Structure formats: C-alpha cells, structure tokens
Amino acid sequence: MDISATAIRWATERSEGLDVRFRHGDAFATEGSYDLVYDSGCFHHLPPHRRIGYLALLDRVLAPGGHFALTCFTAEEGTATPDADLYRQSGLSGGVGYSPDDLRWIFQDLTEVDLRRMTEEPPDSPAFGKSFLWTALFRKEVQRTDAGVRQAEKP
Ligand SMILES: C[S@@+](CC[C@H](N)C(=O)[O-])C[C@H]1O[C@@H](n2cnc3c(N)ncnc32)[C@H](O)[C@@H]1O
Fold first, then answer.
1. Domain spans of the chain?
2. How far is the CA of 143 from the centre of ligand 1 (A)?
3. Comparing C-alpha atoms, which of 135, 134, 137 is closest to residue 110?
4. Per-residue pLDDT of the chain (155 residues; tens, 9 = 90+)
5. Which atom of ligand 1 is nearest to the CA of 4?
6. Which CATH class is domain 31-152?
7. Quick one: which of 20, 44, 87, 126 could link to 73 by a disulfide (CB 3.0–4.6 Å)?
C-alpha cells in the first residue's frame, strides 16, 4: 500500500510476473486483521506526533500472535534532531533517524524478535540491502485467559 499513485505504478512495473496486489491509499485507513504487517520505509517519514496514530493502527490491524516487520533509517542516515526541535524547523530533513533503543521504546508493547542493521547488498545483487537501515521484527503476544480464550495482551 502506498499513498502515492506514482509509487504504486513503479511497484507494479517492477513486479511483473509476480502475484502481488498493490493498493493505492492511506495506510492509516487500513481495515481488517493481518498476521503480518511490513512497513518498508514509511515510519521514518512520520513526524513524532503521528507515532500515536501509528501505534493505534498497529494495535487495530495486527492479529494476536501476528508479526510486525519494520525497515527504517538509522540515526546516521536520518536526522538526529530531537523530536521537539523538529517542530522548530520546517520538515523532517528527509526522515527521522532512530536508535535501537528508540525503536524498543516506541514498540515496547510488542515483543522483539530481531532488530539489526540490514545487510548491505552489492549493486548487482537481485536482493535489496542497505546498511544505513534498521530491519526489525516484533511479535504481538497472545495470552490465554482463565477461561481458555485466546486474546490480545493489550485491549
Ligand atoms: C521511502 S518510501 C518507501 C517506498 C517503498 N515502500 C519501498 O520500500 O521502496 C516511503 C513511502 O511511504 C509512502 N507513504 C507516506 N505516508 C503514507 C501513508 N500514510 N500511507 C501509505 N503510504 C505512505 C510514500 O508515498 C513513499 O512512497
């Protein structure tokens, strides 16, 4: 899903022959329940106050036991400007850079499965890999109640 029609067009062109469905729209308007949510490069473009809505979105659409995967800027690639100062300047200087502890704090309601620097891939590689990005995997836990009903850990 992407809010940019151009991005959807490029993705469609590049995925010829693959069984992929692209959707043009605002990720924040996503409905439904998903076992896997993968954010490739969107989160770091959000201003700090939108993290609240982002967490609410994840809480809503990630099924209990589901996984959330994230690719975002490290603090070397994105801006290291403190959150409060981002509102004194215009724009996010290309994107917000995060530290592993920032990500652990923001996604503290999820269980960390993996959080590491992405492996750099050579220019001729068929795979994408840039070491200035974090790649992370979190899980939304399920818990069994006394009644034996499985439900999300957080309401
Ligand atoms: C760095 S690009 C990553 C593009 C692609 N996902 C990739 O991995 O190559 C960030 C993308 O996030 C999209 N985006 C920003 N806000 C969005 C939103 N609210 N809903 C859906 N897409 C959004 C932008 O249009 C842009 O294409």
1. 31-152
2. 33
3. 137
4. 999 999 999 999 999 999 999 999 999 999 999 999 999 999 999 999 999 999 999 999 999 999 999 999 999 999 999 999 999 998 898 999 999 999 999 999 999 999 999 999 999 999 999 999 999 999 999 975 555 555 555 55
5. 25
6. alpha beta
7. 44
